[in-house]
Write a structure and sequence with these properties.
Elements lengths: L29 H11 L4 H8 L3 H8 L9 H14 L4 H12 L8 H5 L13 H34 L35 E7 L4 E7 L4 E7 L4 E6 L2 E6 L5 E5 L2 E2 L10 E6 L7
Antiparallel strand pairs: 1-4, 1-6, 2-3, 2-5, 5-8, 6-7
Helix pairs in contact: 1-4, 4-5
Length: 281
């Protein structure tokens, strides 16, 4: 009888004996996924911050997988959902990945302690001298009116004893002049466009698009995301310069005239328009 190891124990281990490898570790991080989707959509961090109302430092931190600036797991999940929708991603897998990497869902962080320092303590109430003065003035006015009313009654009684007072004739109302007819509204919206300025109106018809608009002197008029159905109008004395991140989704009116240029979806266009008949720059 052999007391040593059996021959089966001396067999080399095979791949079948090894535990399965978790392939989910190969997936990109949450921050990398959001950053790549934003770049694919042609959006800047400022544009995403403007459309989601999430501050720029928090957007930058989340794209670096730093969730410490979010204020807790509840706020981190909310920011992940908001940023994912803004760049066109499904938020559910990213939230599930966050829960897997940062532990199970915990109880919501109480909101009151986070904002306790920002509360403004109410000042102690002071005597309302204004209300007291108003009450005193009302009392004086009431007493004076009561006195005048009584004196008026005494004089009217004396007039009745001496004889009826002559009847007063009420003045005839002045004839009212008919109001002039309201002018008919203009049949063309182009007539309302000022001729001494360049006016550009953009409407996101088919999809959202990031846009940037500057005046002739380089002043930034707008830089952000124009959601589907939204419109923006810009004016300048000389020229309006545009950058359209998704030109195929934009409908353009320049100086009251609709442009018939057909841009492709996802196409980036740089355009400039001046006064008069619009021409693409």
């Amino acid at each position: 009888m052999s007391i040593g190891n059996s021959p089966e124990d001396d067999r080399p281990s095979t791949d079948a004996d090894q535990p399965p490898v978790d392939r989910e570790d190969d997936r990109p991080s949450i921050g990398c996924s959001l950053q790549q989707a934003r770049a694919d959509a042609g959006l800047t961090i400022d544009a995403v911050s403007t459309s989601t109302r999430v501050r720029v430092p928090i957007v930058q931190a989340i794209e670096q997988d730093d969730f410490s600036r979010c204020g807790g797991d509840v706020y981190a999940r909310g920011h992940i959902r908001t940023l994912a929708r803004a760049v066109g991603l499904d938020p559910a897998p990213l939230v599930a990945q966050y829960d897997a990497e940062h532990g199970a869902r915990t109880a919501p962080t109480p909101v009151a302690p986070l904002f306790e320092a920002e509360r403004i303590r109410s000042e102690p109430r002071r005597p309302n001298w204004t209300a007291a003065m108003v009450a005193a003035i009302v009392a004086v006015i009431g007493f004076a009116g009561f006195t005048l009313f009584n004196s008026g009654e005494g004089q009217s009684g004396k007039q009745v004893a001496e004889g009826p007072a002559p009847a007063k004739t009420s003045p005839k109302p002045a004839p009212t002049k008919p109001a002039p007819p309201a002018p008919n509204p203009s049949e063309s919206a182009i007539a309302a466009i000022p001729q001494d300025k360049v006016t550009v109106k953009l409407t996101a018809v088919d999809d959202k698009s990031w846009i940037s608009a500057k005046s002739a002197n380089g002043k930034l008029l707008f830089d952000g995301l124009l959601l589907q159905g939204e419109s923006k109008t810009f004016q300048d004395d000389v020229r309006v310069d545009l950058i359209l991140g998704n030109a195929g989704a934009i409908e353009l009116f320049v100086n009251g005239k609709k442009l018939e240029d057909k841009f492709k979806a996802g196409q980036v266009e740089r355009l400039s328009y001046a006064k008069g008949d619009p021409q693409a720059g």
